[in-house]
Amino acid sequence: MKLHTLFAASALFTVLALPMTASALDVNIAADLPSVDVMHGGQKVSIMRNQNPNNTVSADFAKTSRKCPPFCIQPGEMGSGVETIGELEIMHYLKKMSDGDKSIIVVDSRTPDWVEKGTIPGSINIPWDKLNIGKSDPITVQEILEKNFGVKNQDGFYMFDNAKTVVMFCNGPWCGQSPTNIKGLLKIGYPGNKIKWYRGGMQDWEVLGLTTVKPAK
Questions:
Q1: What confidence tier does 119 reach under pLDDT thresholds 50, 70, 90?
Q2: Given a cut of 90, is residue 156 above it in pLDDT?
Q3: What is the dihedral of CA 206, 210, 215, 217, to 10 degrees?
Q4: Do 47 and 211 form a contact (C-beta atoms < 8 A)?
Q5: pLDDT-based confidence at 21, cuts 50/70/90?
Q6: CA end-to-end span of the chain, whole Å?
Q7: Strand pairing partners for 101?
Q8: How far apart are CA 195 and CA 193, in angstroms?
Q9: Of 62, 55, 100, 60, which is closest to residue 210 (Cα–Cα)?
């Protein structure tokens, strides 16, 4: 492992790590990371792994053979500067956002029926079909860009000077919802380095037994 990678990992754990409690967990997120506290709907939620060694993934994510298209395996990269991230990285962004960093937004791109089954704590739901640039209602798209993403519209042109870092996810490596939104954002000029994609999505989150919550109202 390269030296700068070690420094990056060390910094990530420093940001995320919480003081150890008297009752240590058997199943940590990482060796020195038992849990991560984030805010969800105004309430503190501790993200941790399920402590039951016999726990199994929910039936919604147990299928291996979904029809393609539309449920095709997504590439590892979206291109144009978009970073593909994993669980530790998305928790890093969630923690920063919960600590008051308003330059970040974590978006569950799924439709509400899926989100109701459980989502990642600290995320907000912006259904992909409302942000499907070029196909969704343009007024709805503009409202999302301005209200949620910090994008300004000046004389018909989008201004990205204060655009937020957008972290997006959907149902997993076979889900095209977040990728559709990401490609649309890139087409209108959203900076690729301000878009992060959690490719594993809810499939991988559930497989690892991580905490889920109902969507914030």
A1: very high
A2: no
A3: 180
A4: yes
A5: very low
A6: 43
A7: none
A8: 6
A9: 55
Reported pTM: 0.89
Task: Name the DSSP class of 118.
Answer: -
Give CA separation, 87 vs 36, 142, 161, 208, in Å.
Answer: 12, 30, 28, 9
Rounded distance between C-alpha atoms, residue 182 and residue 196, angstroms: 9
**Rounded distance, CA 127 to CA 185, Å?**
14
Six-digit token string for 80: 């144009």
**Which residues neighbour 48 within 8 Å (Cβ) at sequence distance 6 or greater?**
25, 27, 29, 34, 35, 36, 210, 211
Whole-angstrom distance, CA of residue 41 vs CA of residue 45:
9
Are 66 and 90 in contact by the 8 Å Cβ rule? The answer is: no
Amino acid symbol at 4: H
Instruction: Give the pLDDT band (50/70/90) at residue 166.
Output: very high
In single-letter form, the type of residue at position 175 comes to C
Read off the tokens for 77: 């990269």
Tokens of 170: 């959907």
CB 131 within 8 A of CB 107: no
User: Encoding tokens for residue 79?
Assistant: 């291109």
d(CA 26, CA 23): 9
